[in-house]
Amino acid sequence: MSSSSTSLSSRTTSSGKRTRPSDVSLRYLLPSIHSAPPFFTQQPNPNTQATVSENWTKLILSYARHRRLFTLRVEDAEVPGGEWDEILRNTRINRRLLPSHLSHILADMVAKNRAVYEPAKQTRAALLLWRSPEEWAEVLHSWADSTGQLNTILTFPDIIEPPVPSPLSDIPMTLLRKAISVLAKTNRAQIISVADGEGVRFLAGNTSR
Amino acid sequence: MHRLGGVGLAAFERQQQSQRSFAELSNELSQAHIDHLHAQLDHFRSALVRFATTHRDKIRKDPSFRHAFQRMCASIGVDPLAGPRKGGWWAEVLNLGDWQYELGVQIVDVCVSTRERNGGLIEMGDLVRLVGKLRAVEEGTITEEDVISSIKTLKPLGAGYEVLDVGGGRKMVRSVVKELDEDQSVVLAIAQDEGGKVSEELLVVRRGWAVERARAALENMLLRDGLCWLDEQDESGRPAYWVPSAMHWDE
């Protein structure tokens, strides 16, 4: 058996697909379970599959956070060459996550509020919540605060494509709206109509709340 | 006519007298003997205590020394963990009772925290390594024997912790109440040889099992017991089964 000396070890990947220079040096450390051949098979035993799904969920979210990815599609497991290849495939042991298995994992993530189908009413693509809308709301508010933009009216592009890269750069619109509505509930943000669409004004709010 | 004992009442009296003296003497002698034994026992006991206290740290920290000490105790019929109720002086002198229970708690910790991925079956070497990691370095290393004797102390809890011999001197610790049949033990032993992987063919070739028997054993472990994981992408094109407790993980 060629696999008799299989040893599962963590290893780093050498992705060169980074766009932001500060991240090029940060390699993603794959967990050792990613070298386990059966990890890539959907398990017939529901308890075992729960473990497998949980580990995939953790892996997907931490990888997404590391590379600032927001969307995962079933398609990513179908066609090679995408930005998810690093984790959906392990060429060293010649295993890959099959689309049907990925679809199952996505459903599990959606059920556990760790992803939402985006757009709604389909199950082939999901928005990954490596931060919950509530956490994004905090990030958003503290960014506005620390950059001195409280009480100023900001357009959505101002937030998504700020001149200085921020933790919110490239945040999907859906997620941004969710975060703003979380803030609006506690009077820390207001949606305002501006000339070319919508804008938002952040308020200091009652932090002692 | 002259006889030593004489005759008559006086002689009878004398005989009784000497018998009494002999009895007294014998009592005295055995008393002395017992006293002597007591003294010896006390001496031995205090020597053992002195030994134990002076070497307490070494006994707790050095696994080979601890093993030697436990063997010595066993050979003279003393159990360092037994002794009078409530800890006992052994436990007090050595703190070995606490030590043993502490280790038991750590074993349970490792078994429970790895259960979801290995189905409640862990390889001895793995267990020793993970427990060692949990203890850090300060207390010194622990050995397989420590783990085994600690698992024995867990027995009264009825949690089903058990050391299984899967053959070839390899041991696994089972932390769930689950009967392993003979066939499953064979599968485990082969999985250990193969770095975790087993298949129907392997069982047929190695053990001369019928395909049906191999399939039944593997399916049971997969579906019923959750002791192995399925791999449908094996190079052979046929399903392979992986026993997580026999895989080499590093975390």
From TrEMBL, chain A:
Pfam families: ESCRT-II (PF05871). It comes from Phlebiopsis gigantea (strain 11061_1 CR5-6). One of its GO terms (biological process) is protein transport to vacuole involved in ubiquitin-dependent protein catabolic process via the multivesicular body sorting pathway. Coiled coil: none annotated. Keywords: Protein transport, Transport. Residues 1-16 have a biased composition (Low complexity). GO terms for cellular component: ESCRT II complex. Belongs to the VPS25 family. Residues 1-21 are annotated as: Disordered. GO terms for molecular function: protein homodimerization activity; structural molecule activity. This is ESCRT-II complex vps25 subunit.
TrEMBL record, chain B:
One of its GO terms (biological process) is protein transport to vacuole involved in ubiquitin-dependent protein catabolic process via the multivesicular body sorting pathway. It comes from the Eukaryota. Gene3D superfamilies: 6.10.140.180, Winged helix-like DNA-binding domain superfamily/Winged helix DNA-binding domain. Transmembrane segments: none annotated. GO terms for cellular component: ESCRT II complex. Belongs to the SNF8 family. This is Vacuolar-sorting protein SNF8.
